[in-house]
Amino acid sequence: MSHAPIFVSYSQPDRETAYALVARLEEAGLRCWVAPRDVAPAADWAAEIIEAIATARVMVLVFSAHANASPQVRREVERAVHREVTVLPFRVADVLPARSLEYFLSSQHWLDAFPAPMAPHYARLVAYLQKLLAEETRPAARAPPLEAPPPPARAAPDAELLASLERQLAHHIGPFAKHLVKRAAARAESAEALIEQLAAEIDSPAERRAFMAACRSLRSP
Predict the structure, then answer these.
(1) Which of the chain's ends, N or C, has fewer CB atoms near its CB within 10 Å?
(2) Which residues pair with 6 in a beta bridge?
(3) Whole-angstrom distance, CA of residue 52 vs CA of residue 9
(4) Which residues contact 75 (CB under 8 A, 6 or more apart)?
């Protein structure tokens, strides 16, 4: 999957608008990732979206009444905020965010794309993104780490436990859970570390505590 600094989020009824926006941005030399165009054939859709958001530097949200009501858009915005990716709502209609999005978008800068014509609105968006991406500083170069001994071998996580963790996590974040459990299981050194990694994917402190309590109960005899 090719990575791009700009992830474009939209609701399916706004697809034509989103693709027109992508065309304008790419004409200006700004690389974009947009589904389904950039989803690899036969790839796991949720995994591709998660990775594209994680590697993006800004999310442009085509915001409309359709986006306002879209659970998929809400999940994408949640992931972007969780990963500290800048979210830029590009309002194509005079609509305010619903409660499910208000928490994530209330502190964001907005750009309005109305009234017509669209050309000046696209121009402002291009200028804003060019400035935003140019101002971001790269992390300072680090000295190469000292060679460390190989980590001790560890037992693979129990398949039944992984399936249970996936079900618990899906209650809080939806279908992204499958990919996140698989990725975290490959890294975690223990079941407790795995639970803590997955809990960090949940934004609500109350839901995070509930998730950890439920998962720990699965390990109790």
Answers:
(1) C
(2) 32, 58
(3) 11
(4) 173, 174, 176
Best-predicted range by mean pLDDT (1-5, 142-146, 185-189): 185-189
Helices and strands, counts by H and E, the chain: 10, 5
- Secondary structure element (H or E) that encloses residue 159, with its range: helix 159-173
119-125-129-130 Cα dihedral, nearest 10 degrees: 40
Q: Per-residue pLDDT for 65 more than 80?
A: yes
| Residue of 129 and 210 predicted with greater confidence | 129
For residue 107, which amino acid is it? S
**CATH superfamily placement of domain 6-135:** Toll/interleukin-1 receptor homology (TIR) domain (3.40.50.10140)
Mapped to the 3 state alphabet, what secondary structure does 16-41 carry? Answer: HHHHHHHHHHHHCCCCEECCCCCCCC
Residues 33 and 3: beta-carbon distance below 8 Å: yes
Rounded-to-5 percentages of helix, strand, coil across the chain: 55, 10, 40
User: In the chain, what are the domain boundaries?
Assistant: 6-135, 159-219
CA distance 80 to 178: 18
Dist. CA 220–CA 202, nearest whole Å: 23
pLDDT of residue 139: 55
